[in-house]
């Protein structure tokens, strides 16, 4: 029996997506490297970014002229980035 996740956060993914992801973790597009090992600046990785951006624009109906930003840190980081930019003295992490 298939389980269903109704909690906040990640949701159930189609089996095909999980299998494709597992293959990419081991060997991304026959590169001999894992998707986790490839630089986000690598030529082979750019199509991943382009497809993700296009899907976000399509799913969220983002008009032309707007950009999609992929930022690390999640929602907590997003909420503190603006005030941090107004600090006169930068904090050390």
UniProtKB/TrEMBL annotation:
Pathway: Amino-acid biosynthesis. Its cofactor is pyridoxal 5'-phosphate. GO terms for molecular function: O-phospho-L-serine:2-oxoglutarate aminotransferase activity; pyridoxal phosphate binding. It catalyses: O-phospho-L-serine + 2-oxoglutarate = 3-phosphooxypyruvate + L-glutamate; 4-(phosphooxy)-L-threonine + 2-oxoglutarate = (R)-3-hydroxy-2-oxo-4-phosphooxybutanoate + L-glutamate. InterPro entries: Aminotrans_V_dom (IPR000192), Pser_aminoTfrase (IPR022278), PyrdxlP-dep_Trfase (IPR015424), PyrdxlP-dep_Trfase_major (IPR015421). One of its GO terms (cellular component) is cytoplasm. Residues 5-89 form the Aminotransferase class V domain. This is Phosphoserine aminotransferase.
